[in-house]
Amino acid sequence: MHNQSQWTELGVSRKDKIIIWTLFPILGAVAGWFIPVLAKWVVALPWFPFQGLFKLISSMHGAWGSTVMTVLGFVGGGVLAMIAVKESLQIRLSDREVRLKIHDEERVFERQEVSAIFLDHKQLVLLDMNGRELLREEADGKPKALAEAFIRAGYDWRERDPFAHEYARWVADTPGLSPGANALFLAREKAIGRDDKEDAEDLRQELSKLGVTVRDEKKRQYWRMHGRRP
Q1: What is the CATH number of the domain that holds 95?
Q2: Where is the YqeB PH domain (predicted)?
Q3: Torsion sign over Cα 40, 41, 44, 46
């Protein structure tokens, strides 16, 4: 008889999703109903920006105007609900593997690939057998619940980053890094400065291929070399 793995789901629960999909559109609809009233008040303040837009909204007299704005608010709330769910990390784990889904992309890691797991502030971090980061994503939920779930499934949960003492702040032309790595750090600094998260993540992956692990604190970059098990 085969042993069947027990799965644990973390992140935004089914109950939370129902609440989000219900509450956001309702709040959007309520806000939409009152927008014409608010617009009339704003039009009376000539110093307030976007006067043209508010004059257009305030011109929607009667129930039909409020109805239109209510429908738009409902739809807008639904869009915000979709974004909120899509950008939340969904975790499904067993004693054999862990599945992590965010932005409609799912990544799967077998347990033997993962050497350690910990929280860095609110970010969930998975390390491989060489200390390289397999994943770093912001995770919802209580830290205690995350820890208990991974420990129960047999993963090596750490209370803190086992390599925290090895990080050094990156500055231009840092000694110990190759010219190529320094160039990537410089490009990444610019991406962070313009808040281009996608480009910053791509460059972080390129640095990882060179054996460099990167951790951010606000707009500052810190680095360490990976290559050994934690």
Answers
A1: 3.30.720
A2: 8-158
A3: negative
Is 6 a domain residue? no
Pairing assessment for the beta strands 168-169 and 133-138 based on DSSP bridges: unpaired
Do residue 178 and residue 227 come from a single domain? Answer: yes
Range of the domain at 57: 14-86
Single pTM value for the model: 0.73
Looking at the fold, whether 185 and 134 belong to one and the same domain comes out as no
**Full strand arrangement of the beta sheet holding 90-93:** 8-10, 90-93, 97-102, 105-110
Structurally, the chain folds into a number of domains equal to: 3
Tell me the pLDDT tens digit for each residue of 186-229.
Answer: 999 999 999 999 999 999 999 999 999 999 998 999 999 998 77
Predicted confidence band at 23 (pLDDT cuts at 50, 70, 90)? confident
Residue 214: burial class (beta carbons within 10 Å; 0-12, 13-18, 19+): buried
Nearest-angstrom CA–CA distance, 11 and 122: 12
Helices (H), 153-216: 179-193, 197-209
